[in-house]
Amino acid sequence: MERQLADDYDATVRRALRVVNPDNAADVEQLASLHERIRGYGHVKLANLVMVKRRERELSAKLRIDAQTGRHVRASMDEMKGAAGLKGIPVVVAR
Predict the structure, then answer these.
(1) Of 6, 8, 17, 88, whose CB count within 10 A is highest?
(2) Model confidence over 3-44: pLDDT tens digits?
(3) What pLDDT does 88 receive?
(4) In terms of Cα–Cα distance, which of 43, 27, 37 is closest to 5?
(5) Each residue of 39-82: pLDDT tens digit?
């Protein structure tokens, strides 16, 4: 997943740089800095990945570009979505 994540970042930022102008420069800057937030190990890293990819989609839509999300990254995110527990530890989500 790590290699795929780096490739996705590179492709998405290259697309953003093709459309950068004074009106959207702040959005492109924010998009480029998003991946700094993907930290941690295991479920913590996956939760950060899901948050970053969600925001990346929002900014990409605003910039009218496609954010790249490769197969391995998508599989990791799907694993997080379906996690009702952390390796046998039940998780309760307050709503």
Answers:
(1) 8
(2) 999 999 999 999 999 999 999 999 999 999 999 999 998 888
(3) 55
(4) 37
(5) 998 888 998 999 999 999 999 999 999 999 999 888 888 877 66
CA torsion through residues 59, 61, 65, 70, sign: positive
d(CA 33, CA 13): 10
**Cα separation, 42 vs 74, whole angstroms:** 15
Confidence label for 93 from pLDDT (cuts 50, 70 and 90): low
| 12: its two tokens | 């998405």
3-state secondary structure 30-88: HHHHHHHHCCCCHHHHHHHHHHHHHHHHHHHHHHCCCCCCCHHHHHHHHHHHCCCEECC
The span from the CA of 9 to the CA of 32, in Å, is: 8
Residue 89 is given by DSSP the state E
How far apart CA 19 and CA 67 sit, in angstroms, is 13
